[in-house]
Amino acid sequence: MASADSSLRWKHLHKVLTKSGPFSDEDWVPGPETITALETSKILGAGGLGCEILKNLALSGFKDIHVIDMDTIDISNLNRQFLFRQSDIGKPKAEVAAAFVEGRVKGVKITPYVGKIQDKDEDYYMQFKIVVCGLDSIEARRWINATLIGMVDPENPESLKPLIDGGTEGFKGQARVILPTLSSCIECQLDMHAPRPAVPLCTIATIPRQPQHCIEWAHQIAWQEQRKDHPFDTDDLDHIGWVYNAALERGKQFNIHGVTFQMTQGVVKNIIPAIASTNAVIAAATTSEALKIATSCNPYLDNYMMYAGEEGVYTYTFEAEKKPDCPVCGNLARNMTVDPEMTLQDYIDTLGDRPEAQLKKPSMRTEEKTLYQRFPPQLEAQTRPNLKRKLRDLVENGQEIAVSDPAYTIDFRYRLLFK
Amino acid sequence: MTDLFPSAQTGPSSKERKYDRQLRLWAASGQKALEESRVLLVNSDGPWGKQSTGVSGVVGVETLKNLVLPGIGGFTIVDPATVTEADLGVNFFLEEQSLGKSRAAETCRLLKELNPDVEGNFQSKPIAELLKKDPDFLPQYRLVLVSGPLKRSALNALCKAARDLNIPMLYTRSVGFYSTFSLQLPPSFPIVETHPDPETTQDLRLLNPWPELAEAASRIDNLETLDDHQHGHVPYLLLLLHYIEKWKETHNGNVPSNYKEKSEFREIVRSGARTSNPEGGEENYDEAVGAVLKSLNPFSLRSAIREIFEMEECKTPRADSSDFWVIASAIREFFQQHNVLPLPGSLPDMKAQSADYIALQNIYKTKARKDIEEVTNIVRKLESILGSRPAEIPEKDIEIFCKNAAHIKVIHGCSIPEIDREARIFKAIQNSISVPDSLIPIFIAFQVLDKIVTDIQEGTLSAESLDSETAWNAQTDRVLSALTHNNQSIIDEDTQERIVEATQELRRTEGGELHNISSLTGGLVAQEALKVITRQYVPLDNTCIFDGVRSRSEMYKL
């Protein structure tokens, strides 16, 4: 396996793989077998931290790396996604990144797939030893989490695929290791990443106070009224420009100052600030864990590290708890307190914002009956009248409901407790 | 300060689009500071003995990557090493054709590809030679990055040269699963835009409203007679002011001051809400109730600001004092007169009719503007007393200072720590070493490594000493006895064991870097570099230790 040339090249890495340290497991056998195990481990990287993750995996000795990314390169990626150049704008990220790292690091094979992680099925994910994700949407994270947990077959240890997740926002970020079914999962930790509360529609429609409210009005209401034949495209600068001008006008009307083009873009695209340095920290935190898991050369993260860089260098490493009522890895329904006087429609609307649910398009049923079903159309029409009914008329206090959402493959079980 | 953002009709320029995601963090002013800065990277200082080429400098190159991407003005890499086979296994900014060539030249070339806006240079000579030959070499840089371990004599000379020129310096080491870095800042390093969490910075002056604000509150005296719609849209600030006035009537003119009184007050506010509506309550009242505990506090000066006001340069600024100290001095005078800082003037969003909210917002903005004017007048007065200053302090700077006055910060920089140099460092180490999970043992292990590398480079130890039990034990004993010379009990058996384990783990790669740890550390170091260069947010003071075995880090003032 290790030629003279290769052992010279990888000499630093091979030292930690061929020598045990004071913290490595007592049963671990360092040596050529560990190196072979690493080099033959097929590993998957995905998401916005992809550039850093691919570089790090390639220089950690992984030889068979797959990468999934559906995006094409945008000019605003160039301030941090260092494998891309001005001339690459418009090309698929996965292909450009794979070609670059293959060209730079001798002997590594990188297989790109341009598309969504949701395009792939269990057979596909089964081929990997580890999955490393730097995804930028909570939806994609929850999907891969549920998929990997669903794949675990207690009879087959190979079916357990460690998921290493990293995410950043501005100067902050987090890295976590998830051992499907064994440790706390992304769904268990969902309420640690609560969505920003949405501005109430009545504020946007009638009583704006902030420049953001004017932008939301232009985006959600004015565009619908005046340009409903043109689907709004957040990447079209002319569209943003139109919304910006409409928001400016609305601002003038209400004496609200501060609408800018940059703010308009930020609001309509829900832009999260991102810099190279934070991405480097978090991506390397995830790949360092991948190396440790693949080789056992040191203990891996158990299980969460958060980082905040606004004031000095702050990290907090802790073990997030596995929740027995986690809808994905637990086996109990999760308690949810609701107002029995609220209509089913109102309840459905709150599911999008509730930190522990964050379901945008839920359908739901009890064991006996369907409460609301979005698809197929006949069933939708049939269950639509329920939307206007109060919860107390549809379910009993303490009754369990199953909620499904097109974004996820699993059902979420909640036990509704009346307030 | 030029405005990077477009006027009304034009969209963003291509540069604004490229940097959009970071401009949202440090704005055009931070970007300008970045683009005007040149950074020096001292990435190695020659071989360690015959076999080893010395520091592989991955952490330095990874740091630079994170500065080139956001658009630093320029960089220079100083690195006398030639590229070896081992470099290619750990450094991404080298390629097959780089073998045998100057590492400075090759890493510079491949880093420059990342951003055509950035100027890149290199020097393949040792830093000591460059410093000696050209006295103008160091002053062109805003920041010096050093990848260690570096032999003490070279490091100390560089530290001193940087300190004499007031140039901040970051000394980093990344070895195996461990890394540590220290930031050397000038003796006084002020920051105005510290970007505190907006939640913690509200200053609404509800307990001591100025006349215009009190006036606005008195206008809702007819609260009970308002119709439901109006009642449900009175901004919560005015509700609180209204109920405070009522409270004062029955409490000898005193405001609710302790927890018990505030809780009582909160219930009074809560009971004012109308509940006979379909929602069964009112949002503005909910907001008022929620704000009682955090907003009903008398103004108090944070101790950090009090300390700044006590500093000599704040009390008596000199003609050559920086603008910061002149404005700080003016704010101090303002505080002495009014017992409050200038009002920041921002208002959180709250349930209200548009016009009512804007009117209230204008009351805050107008007061803030008045305060800025007053501070500006004091600044101008100080300027004329001080005389002969290069330029009048820009109004914009005074405005930014006033808005951030409660959160300004002055860091008292100190040197790159070395264990056997100062009593201060001994003390700091002794204080933190016995804390469970302390990462100080890793710092001590790095000190041992520094010493061994110094001895190798100076020829008193052979290159094999990097992996020699005897050399490590001897140096570890030396550091331990230095630490315990005045107090044996500082290092108990358990602590000693942790130090030994840290040195064992550190020795595993014989001084070599692991890419992940260097990349992570390069991210952390770049983050600190950005904060130092933009003078925004709050940089490290002064040492960070990262433990890649347990995925933890800690900060220490050493």
From TrEMBL, chain A:
Catalytic reaction equation(s): ATP + [NEDD8 protein] + [E1 NEDD8-activating enzyme]-L-cysteine = AMP + diphosphate + [E1 NEDD8-activating enzyme]-S-[NEDD8 protein]-yl-L-cysteine
Query: Does the entry feature the keyword Cell wall biogenesis/degradation, yes or no?
Result: no
EC number of this enzyme: 6.2.1.64
Say yes or no: keyword Cell division present: no
Database matches in Pfam families: E2_bind, ThiF
One Gene Ontology MF term: ATP binding
Q: Which residues form the E2 binding domain?
A: 336-419
Top EC class for this record: ligase
Q: Name one GO cellular component term.
A: protein-containing complex
Pathway, per UniProt? Protein modification; protein neddylation
Keyword entries, A-Z: ATP-binding, Ligase, Nucleotide-binding, Ubl conjugation pathway
What family does the Swiss-Prot or TrEMBL record give for this protein? Belongs to the ubiquitin-activating E1 family. UBA3 subfamily.
> What this chain does, per the record?
Catalytic subunit of the dimeric E1 enzyme, which activates NEDD8.
Q: What is this protein called?
A: NEDD8-activating enzyme E1 catalytic subunit
UniProtKB/TrEMBL annotation, chain B:
One of the GO biological process terms: protein neddylation
Q: What is this protein called?
A: NEDD8-activating enzyme E1 regulatory subunit
One MF annotation (Gene Ontology) recorded for this entry:
NEDD8 activating enzyme activity
Q: In which pathway does it act?
A: Protein modification; protein neddylation
Query: Would the keyword Lipid metabolism turn up in this protein's UniProt record?
Result: no
Q: What is the lineage of its organism?
A: Eukaryota, Fungi, Dikarya, Ascomycota, Pezizomycotina
What family does this chain come from, according to its entry? Belongs to the ubiquitin-activating E1 family. ULA1 subfamily.
Key words of the record: Ubl conjugation pathway
SUPFAM superfamilies per UniProt = Activating enzymes of the ubiquitin-like proteins
Q: Name one GO cellular component term.
A: cytoplasm
What organism is this sequence from? Aspergillus coremiiformis
Q: Which residues form the THIF-type NAD/FAD binding fold domain?
A: 19-551
